Amino acid sequence: MNNFHSAKSVREEMNAKGLKFNKAFGQNFLTDESVLEKIVDAAELNKDDCVLEIGPGMGVLTLELAKRAGKVISVEIDKNLIAPLKSTVKDFSNVEIINEDILKVNLAELFKEKFGEKPVKVVANLPYYITTPIVMKLLEDKLPISDIVIMIQKEVADRLTASAGKKEYGAISVSVNYFSKPEKIVDVPPHAFVPQPKVWSQVLKLSVYSEPPVKVKDEKKFFNLIKGAFGQRRKTLVNAAGNYPPLNTDKEKVKEALCALGLSENIRGEALSLTDFARLSDLL
Ligand code: SAM
To answer: How far is CA 10 from CA 19, 31, 75, 226, in A?
Structure first.
């Protein structure tokens, strides 16, 4: 019987299997049962659900997902964890473990092969060193994902969910709000893990929109505008966007567009809301 709900028992289990925590892979394993419950509750799972788990580790979350969901695919990069993981979930026929780097997996193909046309929920205690590329891959690649429930570093969660005018607000906040409705579930202290990370964490739920809440004529231009605006965030938007080659515009045009929207020509990108960015990109 596995017991992953105390630091001592996880360490004993790892020792017994000759395993070491691999820092380079961001291995901090969750031991706090109440946090585990909040993660699976937030995912609102039922037996029809298809779940992708990223970084199952020793399988503490995988077990709970297997109990509640219809089918679970768990992608783990560390080959040393595959045999222990398989042993953790041996009583569940609805779990498949894949030994891969999630950033290299073609998720569209994987979903089609394993889940057919069904929508997918992503539930994961993410490796913190690659949080942003994972979240952007999940959101930008137009995959059939309905919900994402993830544990990430709190500081990063603050950036993903920041609103205009806040110091944490950046290109990624605009993107996350364009693709999904973010909801904070719970803040998690370091002692909920073994080994303990140096930082606080947060469980975050992103309910993915089937249609973005603002319409833009040209999505590529919209994202270029956001990149240009925040690439040089200390500059005014006129200077930052007017000198950003992928936008193929100039300062005068940006000034005119801002004026047409009733915004100051001295405004910085960090003061623009998602809707402002959408309207500005349509005008440029
Ligand atoms: N789910 C487990 C838990 O809650 O205790 C482990 C979470 S731990 C924070 C992150 C996990 O992601 C580790 O098992 C690590 O090996 C795995 N991982 C790291 N990089 C990965 C990658 N590129 N692709 C897939 N898994 C990865």
So the answer is: 11, 8, 20, 44
Considering the domain 7-208, what is its CATH architecture? 3-Layer(aba) Sandwich (3.40)
What letter would DSSP give residue 245? G
Report the residue among 23, 54, 130 best suited for mutation to probe ligand 1: largest number of ligand atoms under 8 A from its CB.
Answer: 54
pLDDT digits (tens, 9 = 90+) for 163-216: 999 999 999 999 999 999 999 999 999 999 999 999 999 999 999 999 999 999
What is the torsion angle, in degrees rounded to the nearest 10, for the CA atoms of residue 268, residue 273, residue 274 and residue 276?
A: -70
Residue 106 CA, distance from chain mean position: 17
46-76 confidence digits (pLDDT tens): 999 999 999 999 999 999 999 999 999 999 9
* Residues with pLDDT less than 50, the chain: none
Could you identify the atom of ligand 1 that is nearest to the CA of residue 22?
16
Q: Under DSSP, is residue 30 helix (H, G, I), strand (E, B) or coil?
A: strand
- Tell me the best of 4, 20, 29, 53 to mutate to test the pocket of ligand 1, counting ligand atoms within 8 Å of each CB and taking the most: 29
3-state secondary structure of 184: strand
Q: Is the CB of 74 under 6 A from ligand 1?
A: no
Among candidate residues 75, 232, 39, the one with its CA nearest the CA of residue 147:
39
Positive or negative torsion for Cα 158, 163, 164, 170? positive
CATH superfamily, domain 219-283, is rRNA adenine dimethylase, C-terminal domain (1.10.8.100)
Domain ranges of the chain: 7-208, 219-283
Residue type, 259: C
Q: How far apart are CA 282 and CA 28, in angstroms?
A: 44
